[in-house]
Amino acid sequence: MITSTIYETERLLLRPSTEEDADMILELFNSPKWKRYVGERKVNTLEDAAKYIRERMMPQLHRLGFSNNTVIRKSDGAKLGCCGLYDREGLDGVDIGYGFLPQYEGHGYAFEAACRVKQLGIEDFGIKEILGITAQENLASQKILLKLGLREEGLISLPGETKKLLLYRWKLSG
Q1: Can you give the pLDDT at residue 162?
Q2: Three-state SS string across the chain, please?
Q3: Predicted model pTM
Q4: Which superfamily does CATH assign the domain made up of 7-171 to?
């Protein structure tokens, strides 16, 4: 199952990430906040970024129909970062995640994109529960998860990681 649909918000376009987004992924994965809060992904060249997209993002898109989306500003076509739903090892459910290049932080893009992604998960993919994980010191991400309606549940560790992360959860009522 694969989708090539482009989704819109008032200011943004969201489309499944492809190898043509390797330059943005390389910059994002090597930004100071990404490394601090998300961790080292060993993406040091354009080829590494293209391989990461090919081997880590595309298989989930083909399997589930959703994955990482590149977030593009409508007004000028700038690639701002990414936002998506992830079937992440170590989590019992689908995780919503986002990351933006430093120059695009603080403009509400992460919340705007995440709202649309959450809506897609519920309406287009029938997801009834959405998880969120974030570093304990990442207050900005915690605020977004709370604003999205997720509630903090406690600490977890993902496989192969020593750092404990905050776990958030949202459930469809009814």
Answers
A1: 84
A2: CCCCCCEECCCEEEEECCHHHHHHHHHHHCCHHHHHHCCCCCCCCHHHHHHHHHHHHHHHHHHHCCCEEEEEECCCCCEEEEEEEECCCCCCCEEEEEEECHHHCCCCHHHHHHHHHHHHHHHCCCCCEEEEEEECCCHHHHHHHHHCCCEEEEEECCCCCCCCEEEEEEECCC
A3: 0.94
A4: Gcn5-related N-acetyltransferase (GNAT) (3.40.630.30)
